[in-house]
Amino acid sequence: MAKEPVRVLVTGAAGQIGYALVPMIARGVMLGADQPVILHMLDIPPAAEALNGVKMELVDAAFSLLKGCIFIIVWFKFQMVLLLLLMLLRRALESILQSWLVVSQGGRNGKEGCYVKECVYLQVSGFCLGTACSSKLQGEKNVFTKVLVVANPANTNALILKEFAPSIPAKNITCLTRLDHNRALGQISEKLNVQVSDVKNVIIWGNHSSTQYPDVNHATVKTPSGEKPVRELVKDDAWLNGEFITTVQQRGAAIIKARKLSSALSAASAACDHIRDWVLGTPEGTWVSMGVYSDGSYNAPAGVIYSFPVTCRNGEWTIVQGLAIDEFSRKKLDLTGAELTEEKELAYSCLS
Description:
Order of helices and strands: EHEHEHHEHEHEHEEEEEHHHHHEEEH
GO molecular function: malate dehydrogenase activity; oxidoreductase activity, acting on the CH-OH group of donors, NAD or NADP as acceptor
Pfam families: Ldh_1_C
Family: Belongs to the LDH/MDH superfamily. MDH type 2 family.
Radius of gyration: 20 Å
Number of helices: 13
Keywords: Membrane, NAD, Oxidoreductase, Transmembrane, Transmembrane helix
InterPro entries: L-lactate/malate_DH (IPR001557), Lactate/malate_DH_C (IPR022383), Lactate_DH/Glyco_Ohase_4_C (IPR015955), Malate_DH_AS (IPR001252), Malate_DH_type2 (IPR010945), NAD(P)-bd_dom_sf (IPR036291)
Shape: globular
Helix content: 40-55%
Structural class: alpha/beta
């Protein structure tokens, strides 16, 4: 029996990541080769023509899994109050109310010296406050909608969404650190000249920023003689504790420098990986990195969206517990946690 279509809302759908992401969703990369989807694509008025072009291309591609394609144009400005947002975002709210999966990836860089504050107003206002209004309309818990926030600052954007959308359980709101996770896998793969599929269980701790901590202390590589620790095979702690970490932390900036555009392809692919594993489950013995609402595990600050190693089963994520944290790692975890706490305080001051 054919499956019922899953509705997927993509915000910023006409942007670079959206253009790379929506065909992946329509092809089954995100939810599986047998899962039909209905795409709801949201963007702002300047992107209306481009968004219509994306829709035309989706039709032309004749994706067999794509059972519907709806685009929504939303007007919003920096100064809008919640009631005005509620009226102007009505079409978006109707889409969100029907959606099971939401990928918020349309973003805009803030000005130097006020990055988080600008992002809170310019990025969170359009998506997060709109979702908050839909939550008030629902009047009951929306346990079905799962949200992945990609737009930076991703962790803090996801936290604000959690605060302003009380009908969506905190466990259903996540942010993307799978891109950093995949970057770490790629660096180890290249260093050891092995298939990336043979490397597993790296960890991205903390914030999707330059303070994130890519950790290989528990990572392994499949070899002809069994799984071996990454550190044992690399045999270069100076590289693993130095260049490897900074390369992963600064990979996004390096790609922008190289192609003069952001890393849209890899971000879209990582978003698909994130949701696929969340919904369909992680392989046995393997964990992935996800930005989730912190319960204080590993002495990370509670009440922020923090990237942890997680396993997924039956549509639920669980933080991997009991991993040893050495002194070097402890300092890194604390540093990125402190940044997230600072971002939270700044974001809340903007919204108070």
